[in-house]
Amino acid sequence: MKLEQVLHMIGGDGETNYASNSALQKTVISKAKPIVEKAILDLYCITFPKSLSIADLGCSSGPNTLMVISEIIDAVDRRCHHLNRPSPEFQVYLNDLPTNDFNAIFRSLPGFHEKLKKEKGRDFGPCYIVGVPGSFYGRLFPDKSLHFVHSSYSVHWLSQVPSILESENYIGLNKGHIYIAETSPPLVHKVYLEQFQKDFTLFLRSRSQELVPSGRMVLALVGRIDSNPISRWCGYIFELLAQALNDMVSQGIVEEAKADSFNMPVYLPSIQELRGVIEKEGSFHVDQLEIIELNWDQNHDDDNPNCVPDVMTSGNSIAKRIRAISESMLINHFGTAIIEDLFERFAAKIAGHLSKEKSKVSNLVISMIKKDEDRLVASF
Ligand SMILES: C[S@@+](CC[C@H](N)C(=O)[O-])C[C@H]1O[C@@H](n2cnc3c(N)ncnc32)[C@H](O)[C@@H]1O
């Protein structure tokens, strides 16, 4: 299954849409803000381009879509004021898969432009914003046309489930699971890792061709802080979803063969795995790498001892979050009839898990600089 034909976050205005269930992603964007600002200002203040080209890859559709773009524009505009220079023109490219709700983004643009005009005054910009439908696992932009690339919560999506897991002879290899789990055979981790290495290499190669020399890229993705592929924290959420599916199989609601052939097209890399691909591909220096650890439940505040969230409420809100991102794939594979039941069971599994242990998501934020080819050639 090619992910780009199926995957989309739930759009529209319903209770389960991505826009209402992306608070965790919003927190990651807020916490990564200093890294994004440093990267864009380092870049801008070297060359002061008259027109600054920025791409956000995997922008989705919701309150987060224009959040990073606003932060980047604010940072550059403030620096220009400080230096008493005119602000540059901003050329903004919002990319996602063609199945994304681009119409909702386009409808929000007049309000966004109005707000910019009010806040920044007449001398600002202008800011041109366009949508770019297509997979970031391949070229999206002309050679050396971008100054800055940003992507949040998107690069852990693979281009496809590792093909061996969908091939006739190997169906059932990961029986009872939908991602790498404790009892998955080692081959399962091997093929997931290989798919990630292949996809991420293509991602880096494509961006290195599109970025100007010394162009910058900041990526935030879910990952692992240890080398153990079976993360008790991040990947475990998929194990709970698998358990809910397994219960439905044993009750005859879901066909066993259908469950055996479903696997999630995501990979949560360790820091070493991420760095390994970047080093091997060779086009980027890593400037900064930060880990942001967040509770699965965004209502759970570690700093407030009086905050004891109800596990069932947490279970429901985490289940809705996972539903907003995975429903399109589940419907494609199992049909719509099982979805409500599946997510009710999943919410109860999460609640059961949270009543025993607290779980976190490890987010990796990595800031990279494109190597200067001229300098590379000169150093040979
Ligand atoms: C969880 S959303 C993150 C959206 C937003 N950046 C945020 O932080 O809230 C992940 C997005 O990545 C997109 N995506 C996944 N694979 C992609 C690919 N190969 N090319 C472009 N977009 C992709 C999905 O369609 C989805 O909209």
Describe the protein:
It contains ten helices and seven strands. The chain has a single domain (about 5-380), classed as Vaccinia Virus protein VP39 (Rossmann fold, 3-Layer(aba) Sandwich). It is α/β, with parallel strands linked by helices and about 375 residues long. Helix 4 packs across helix 7 (about 270-280). Strands 3-2-1-4-5-7-6 form a seven-stranded mixed beta sheet, with helices on both faces. Bound molecules: S-adenosylmethionine (SAM).
For the structure shown, list the relevant keywords.
Rossmann fold, 7-stranded mixed beta sheet, alpha/beta
Distinct ligand kinds: S-adenosylmethionine
The level-1 CATH class: Alpha Beta
Count of alpha and pi helical runs? 10
CATH fold name:
Rossmann fold
Strand order of the largest sheet: 3-2-1-4-5-7-6
Rg (C-alpha, Å): 21 Å
Q: CATH homologous superfamily name?
A: Vaccinia Virus protein VP39
Shape estimate? globular
Structural class per helix/strand content?
Answer: alpha/beta
The CATH architecture: 3-Layer(aba) Sandwich
Low-confidence stretches: 376-380
Q: Using DSSP, what is the number of strands?
A: 7
Helical fraction equals 40-55%
Mean pLDDT: 89
- What profile does the largest beta sheet have? 7 strands, mixed
Query: How many structural domains does the protein architecture include?
Result: 1
Our measurement of the CA-to-CA distance between the termini, rounded to an integer number of angstroms, reads 43 Å
**What is the string of SSEs from the N terminus onward?**
HEHEHEEHEHHHEHHEH
* Approximate strand percentage: 15-25%
